[in-house]
Amino acid sequence: MSKAGAAGPGEMPAPGRPELSGLRRAAGAEWGPLLRTVRSSLVTARLRAIPVTLTAVSLTLVFQFVQNQDWGYRTVQDIGAVQAWEHLWVALLRTPLSLFVPALDLPVWGALAQILVVFGIAEICVGWRQTLLVAYVATLAGTMYARIGIWIGPVSPIGLPDSDKYVIDTGPSAAVVGLAVFVCWRYRAWFTCAAVAVAMVVEVVSIKNNLAGKEHVAAVLAVLVLSALWEVWRPGEPRDAWRVSGWGRPR
């Protein structure tokens, strides 16, 4: 005798819950192509697939160690800390390294985990050149917004108080948010892309209405514009080509 609930001879197995099947299909459509690309690269190349990401993690760890030393804090500030009161050319020179200077008031392990996961996925999925380009664009957007926001002033919801010109710009987080949006756009993970963008707006409205939160929104907007320009710039490329197994990472 068969166990209770098991399909007997000639009987059809009980169908799964339709809502779970629908969720699995939705998750597969949303993240399937991206996860297949990441899994394939990590299986074949392992850590060799993310050399730039590992370098970024190491650089962030070094900056964290050095800036917490009495002898190193000033050095890190001079080469990687961006504030809106400084000359623009100084900020532009420091912006590339500012991507890897973690905030002093936040746990460094959170920043390292974000860089490892998001930079790693981006490097595999869109290549290291586009990863660095998008990370820089997102960070630069935050840097420029800080100056514009202070010029607008606190009278506007998108403005900033004058005291924020002495606040250090967001470090890796703007780049992480921008890369998440860019990769989701490229792989047509529309729900996740929208969720990241909405989360950044909610962060400003309900949680962290400060320079860092608004810089995250600026980073998202800049990357959305960059993604839209990408669609126009490469009209001849099959837009869903990278979703087909075997095409490899998009460029």
Protein described:
With 251 residues, the chain is mainly α. It contains nine helices and no strands. α7 runs antiparallel to α8 (190-207) and α7 runs parallel beside α9. It starts with 17 loop residues before the first helix and ends in an 18-residue tail after the last helix. Mean pLDDT is 84; it is low at 1-7 and 238-251.
Features:
disordered C terminus; mainly alpha; disordered N terminus; 251 residues; single chain
What is the element layout, followed by pairings?
Layout: H1 18-45, H2 51-67, H3 73-80, H4 88-98, H5 108-126, H6 128-152, H7 172-186, H8 190-207, H9 211-233
Helix pairs in contact: 2-5, 4-6, 5-6, 5-7, 6-7, 6-9, 7-8, 7-9, 8-9
What multimeric state do the chains show?
single chain
User: Residue ranges: pLDDT <50 for 5 or more in a row?
Assistant: 1-7, 238-251
User: Could you say which structural class the secondary elements and strand pairing correspond to?
Assistant: mainly alpha
Order of helices and strands: HHHHHHHHH
Shape: globular
**Alpha-carbon distance between the two ends:** 58 Å
How much of the residues is beta strand, in percent?
A: under 5%
The percentage helix is 55-70%
Compute the average pLDDT: 84
Q: Can you summarize the main beta sheet?
A: none
Q: C-alpha Rg, in Å?
A: 22 Å
Instruction: Tell me the number of strands.
Output: 0
Count of helical segments?
Answer: 9
